Amino acid sequence: MVKEVIHAIQDEYPDDFAWCFGCGRLNEDGYHFRTGWQGEETVTYYEPSSKHIAIPGFVYGGLIASLVDCHGTGSCALALHRKNGHEPGGGEEPPRFVTASLNVNYMKPTPHGALLKAVGKVEEIHPKKFKVFVEVFADDALCATGEVVGVVMPATFASK
């Protein structure tokens, strides 16, 4: 099984939009989540550090929520980029999404020390709005599910 994303959509974001704490490649202190295609589903892998604990042995729930959030918006960007005829690594600037709605359900405590894998299934619900159903696994155990509704980032978010 592949444990890394080769062509992540976040690698294609312009510098002005690459600062997110969760998925921004330019945020020195961030998580640096990377989302790509695995067949018709999206995937993000992440290995929490010793800083990301709730109590010894278990991952902090806020990290899981961030993973669902950024995986969801990255998945939206992947879906619209593909709909527009492009794939990550092709050199075309992808659309950027923001979260309109985030729902996370914690199914069981997430053990620390396991590789996390977020898997997304994307559904278009409007030309500028997508819904992503996310499952988060620690190794092979389902630990959380979520739903993200992402909308194309408004032009007003651009740098001044």
Secondary-structure blueprint of this entry?
Layout: E1 35-38, E2 41-46, E3 53-55, E4 58-59, H1 61-83, E5 97-106, E6 116-126, E7 129-138, E8 141-152
Antiparallel strand pairs: 1-2, 2-6, 3-4, 5-8, 6-7, 7-8
What can you tell me about this protein's structure?
With 160 residues, this protein is mostly beta strands. Helix content is 14%, strand content 36%. A 6-stranded antiparallel sheet has the order 1-2-6-7-8-5, with helices on one face. The protein has a two-stranded antiparallel ribbon with strand order 3-4. A hairpin with a 2-residue loop joins β1 and β2. The chain starts with 34 loop residues before the first strand and ends in an 8-residue tail after the last strand. The mean pLDDT is 95.
Based on the model shown, name its key terms.
160 residues, mainly beta, two-stranded antiparallel ribbon, 8 strands, globular
Strand content: 35-45%
Helix-and-strand structural type: mainly beta
Summarize the amount of helix as a percent range: 10-25%
Strand order of the largest sheet: 1-2-6-7-8-5
Low-confidence stretches: none
Q: Any idea what the radius of gyration is? A: 15 Å
- Mean pLDDT across residues: 95
- Overall spatial form: globular
Order of helices and strands: EEEEHEEEE
Largest sheet: 6 strands, antiparallel
* DSSP strand count: 8
- Count of runs of 4 or more consecutive helical residues: 1
Distance between the termini: 43 Å
Tell me briefly what this model is.
This protein is mainly beta and 160 residues long. It is built from one helix and eight strands, in the order ββββαββββ.
